[in-house]
Write a structure and sequence with these properties.
By secondary structure, the protein is an alpha/beta fold. The chain has 13 helices and 8 strands. The radius of gyration is 18 Å and the shape is globular.
């Protein structure tokens, strides 16, 4: 199985697609909203962006975007649709793929199905950015996304429970399930000041360094702001309805810091598939 999948991966485009997983230790910290607005921020820079809803249990990207996708990854896995047929255009400059429960089946695909899926997924290699909004917590499909991405953005808030859960998922990522070379970045959401974001981040970064011996990069905070809640109610991202707001400025700063990260030996979609399909 691995040999045949490898042959397909070697035929993929050499275009380096940056693949970012946005995750969190608990729900309700604004992870999905951040993923959506990051996609818009990249699109506003002229990047070709695809946002994948990887929250298999509580997918809600389509709700926040007020989009009703006709198809999802399940149709690709079942050979009912090709990858390009399930990509949904949005009015915000990026494309969207509904996840449903398609990815959860991939671990059990046979050789022929695996080859087909790898060939289909490789069609995404002509984009610049793929952002995967994972589910919250430590489910296997979440960790599978995290293991395969070039960068993992862990979202937390200043709440003690969110901080504890952020540390918990970082601990699992770095010690139990995947290689320790994963590139973990920290975003602190819903802060009232930059100082609060820095204080929360320093606490997490210090604990991770002390007890796990791992370096986490703090890449920014996002302010608590009325424009965020208004955007959710209107089903229009805050990067669009209020592009000069503090949260919008924060998203642009976070993207700028991500872009300064070296992709190293990553081959974009090829590397993602190699890691994602790897048997533990």
């Amino acid at each position: 199985m691995e040999d045949q999948a490898q042959e397909l991966r070697e035929l993929m485009s050499s275009h380096k697609t940056r693949i970012i997983a946005v995750t969190s230790g608990k729900g309700g910290v604004g992870k999905t909203n951040i993923a959506i607005n990051m996609a818009i921020g990249y699109a506003q820079q002229g990047k070709k962006v695809i946002l994948i809803d990887g929250d298999l249990g509580l997918a809600n990207i389509n709700v926040l975007l007020n989009v009703v996708p006709q198809y999802n990854l399940m149709q690709v896995v079942n050979h009912q649709k090709k990858m390009h047929e399930i990509v949904t255009d949005t009015e915000f400059g990026f494309k969207f793929i509904a996840g449903a429960n398609g990815f959860s089946k991939i671990a059990n695909l046979d050789v022929e199905e695996l080859d087909y899926f790898a060939d289909q997924f490789s069609q995404l290699s002509n984009v610049d950015i793929i952002i995967i909004d994972t589910g919250a917590g430590i489910a296997n499909n979440v960790l599978q996304f995290v293991a395969a991405a070039d960068e993992v953005c862990v979202v937390t808030t200043p709440e003690p429970t969110a901080i504890t859960d952020a540390y918990g998922i970082i601990k699992i990522i770095t010690t139990e399930h995947i290689d320790r070379d994963v590139n973990i970045k920290l975003i602190v959401n819903r802060v009232h000041s930059a100082e609060e974001g820095k204080r929360v981040s320093e606490r997490i970064v210090s604990i991770v360094s002390q007890f796990l011996g791992y370096k986490v990069d703090y890449i920014g905070c996002i302010y608590e702001d009325s424009s965020v809640q208004a955007s959710v109610i209107r089903q229009k991202p805050f990067m669009v309805i209020n592009p000069t707001s503090k949260p919008a400025q924060c998203i642009r700063q976070i993207i700028g810091r991500i872009e300064k990260s070296d992709l190293g030996n990553s081959d974009g979609v090829s590397s993602f598939l190699k890691k994602f399909l790897r048997k533990n």
